[in-house]
Amino acid sequence: MSVEKPKIVFVLGGPGAGKGTQCSRIVDRFQFTHLSAGDLLREERSREGSEFGNLIEDYIRNGKIVPVEVTCSLLENAMKASGKSRFLIDGFPRNQDNLDGWNRQMSEKVDFQFVFFFDCGEDVCVKRCLGRGQSGSGRTDDNLDSLKKRISTYNNDSLPIIKFFEGAGQVKRIDASPDAEEVFGEVEKIFVASGF
Ligand code: UP5
Ligand code: MG
């Protein structure tokens, strides 16, 4: 008897594009489990006894991308622990190392659907993250210094990955600059059209 592989949607876009916000809404409306790679890394950073705590903090504060062995294992463990079969993977893969590591460790084990790309201008992204920082997000990277680095990593390392998926016809792009309600209207259409 063949066991069905879990369905995976990658959710990508710049810092503050609204990935987390839209994923919560998708979870409320469709049968998906949301796994944010950034949230999993922040959890691992604070876990007592974690050997990666300091490394993760240094990478996050400097907007650098944590080595894939760490992130991919956190994702795989979270998938297994959930016992669920449809996942939104938010904020991953964000560079070639991430993509290669995922392909080595996970691609055979999952049923990849598509990439959701939340496309949003840099100024809007920065404004949203700074706003979140001011309202007490507690994130150590919601400051101008870290944001400049996050944006530059996104442009240099993450956009080429989105372009790669685009070339393979696997990207669904959404304009993420309107308000969250309006963006979700578009998101919903895509999920319904994809049979979810
Ligand atoms: N907001 C959201 N949507 C809005 C809208 N349409 N209109 C107006 N406001 C809107 O939203 C950000 C803020 O904007 C919130 O205040 C929200 O209310 C408002 P959010 O939904 O949180 O946006 P999101 O795209 O999730 O932004 P986030 O900051 O989480 O994106 P990043 O990609 O920068 O952060 P992430 O947590 O994914 O990664 C952080 C760091 O972890 C990375 O820089 C990296 O160092 C590390 N990392 C890795 O190394 N590897 C990984 O695989 C993942 C992360
Ligand atoms: Mg997020």
TrEMBL record:
Residues reported in the UniProt entry to bind ATP: 16-21, 132, 178
Keywords: ATP-binding, Cytoplasm, Kinase, Nucleotide-binding, Nucleus, Phosphoprotein, Pyrimidine biosynthesis, Transferase
GO cellular component labels: cytoplasm; nucleus
Stretches the record annotates as NMPbind: 36-66
Catalytic reaction list: CMP + ATP = CDP + ADP; UMP + ATP = UDP + ADP; dCMP + ATP = dCDP + ADP
InterPro entries per the UniProt record, alphabetical: Adenylat/UMP-CMP_kin, Adenylat_kinase_CS, P-loop_NTPase, UMP_CMP_kinase
Subcellular location: Cytoplasm; Nucleus
EC number: 2.7.4.14
Any one GO BP annotation for this protein: pyrimidine nucleotide biosynthetic process
Residues at which a ribonucleoside 5'-phosphate binds: 42, 64-66, 91-94, 139, 150
Domain writeup: Consists of three domains, a large central CORE domain and two small peripheral domains, NMPbind and LID, which undergo movements during catalysis. The LID domain closes over the site of phosphoryl transfer upon ATP binding. Assembling and dissambling the active center during each catalytic cycle provides an effective means to prevent ATP hydrolysis.
Record family assignment: Belongs to the adenylate kinase family. UMP-CMP kinase subfamily.
Subunit-level organization: Monomer.
HAMAP family the UniProt entry points to: Adenylate_kinase_Adk, Adenylate_kinase_UMP_CMP_kin
Identification of the protein by name: UMP-CMP kinase
Gene giving rise to this polypeptide: Cmpk
